Every structure is written in structure tokens, then in C-alpha cells.
Amino acid sequence: MIGDRWKSEIREFKDGKTGRAIQQLTTIGNNVHLYFTENSFDLRKREIIFRSDRASGESRAPHESPHYDLFRMNLDSGEIEQLTDEPETVDASGNVTKTPDSQLIVYHTGKKLKLLDTTTGKISVVYAETGNFTVRAPSIAPNRRYLAFARNEDVRIPRGPNYSGFKESFYRIKDGRITLAYLDGSGWFDVFKDTHWTAHFQFC
Fold first, then answer.
1. Are 12 and 57 in contact, with CB atoms under 8 Å apart?
2. What stretches of 84-132 adopt beta strand conformation (E)?
3. Domains (ranges, CATH) in the chain?
4. Which of 18, 70, 128, 183 has the most CB atoms lying inside 10 A of its own CB?
5. Tens of pLDDT, residues 90-104
6. Does the pTM of the predicted model rise above 0.90?
7. What 8-state DSSP symbol labels residue 29?
8. pLDDT, tens digit, for every residue of 63-119?
9. Which helix (H) or strand (E) holds 192?
10. Are 112 and 104 in contact (CB under 8 A)?
11. Which helix (H) or strand (E) holds 92?
């Protein structure tokens, strides 16, 4: 449930091969940092935002589609707090973004992009996909008024390890778009359309 807390799981040990000191942050469940184009760290506090299946009540391997939600960890105390409790998993890597201070977090669950204000705890829907498109790579504008993201026609090609399915997706996707939505949920429109797969969108 939102607000549930876990005590510190941090442990330190020495790497057997290099002798380097290692600090392991978590021990329970699958715990995943944000995608490499995002930053899990908070600009102002010693905290990180990450996905975990620790609240799911299930024990699944990463390839068995664990049920992920969003969590925050205090890096000083090690305490972990649950931020979301979604009936559908907070989607795979590349579908969570946040402001540098972690006040606003946008995440994909089901066919919706939702906005979490970590100051108030309020969660709202920014965008709901109703067509035959997948939604990826949300990015919040620096002025915090807009959200933009990639939308691609859903060609339903299974994905697997070692990028399997990528080549087939590359050749079959013929409708890729960049969509801009107002962060207050008041509307959206396509700003770019092409005959290729679009991904890794970021405001710069």
C-alpha cells in the first residue's frame, strides 16, 4: 500500500576479486533503477526513486514479469517508502520519468500515463491511449507544463532477451509519433509523425 515502509536493507562487503568496498542497497525482491536516459537520484535530497516488486506478495524472476510499483529510498537511513499501488504493473524500463527534485514523477501503467506529485501524494491521469499504439519514453518539460512521449503503432512482436524482436519491430512499425500532453491532463496533440519507430524522447 502507498506509504508502507521497509527498514534499511543496506549492507557493505568487500569484492573478492578487486578488494573494493561494495554497498548493496536492497535485498528483498526485484529492484530496478530508472532507465539509463533518466536519473534515479534526487537533486536536493539524498534519495533515489526506483521500481520494485517487493509489495506484490509474489516471488518472480525478472523474466517472469514481476508486478512493479514505485518506491523511494532515503540513502542515509536506508528506509524505503512505497509511492504507488497500481493494479497493473508500473511498466518496464524507459517508462518512468521525473523532475530533478523528484517532486513530479510520470509513469506508464496499463494504457495510461499517470502523474504523481510526491509532495501532495496526488496521482492523476495525464494521457490515456485509446488507439492501436504503444506509449514509451515520457519526458517532463523543464517548465513543468508539458509531457511529451513516443507513440508507435502496436505491431505485437514479442520481445525477449538480447534484443530479440527489435529487428522485426524496426521493419514493421510504419507509424511513429511524438505526442505532447498538458501536464494538468487538459489535452494532447501529435507534434511529429514519421514512418519509423520513435523512442528515447527527451526534452533538451
1. no
2. 96-98, 104-109, 112-117, 123-128
3. 5-194 (2.130.10.10)
4. 70
5. 987 779 999 999 999
6. yes
7. S
8. 888 999 999 999 999 999 999 999 999 987 779 999 999 999 999 999 999 999 999
9. strand 188-194
10. no
11. none
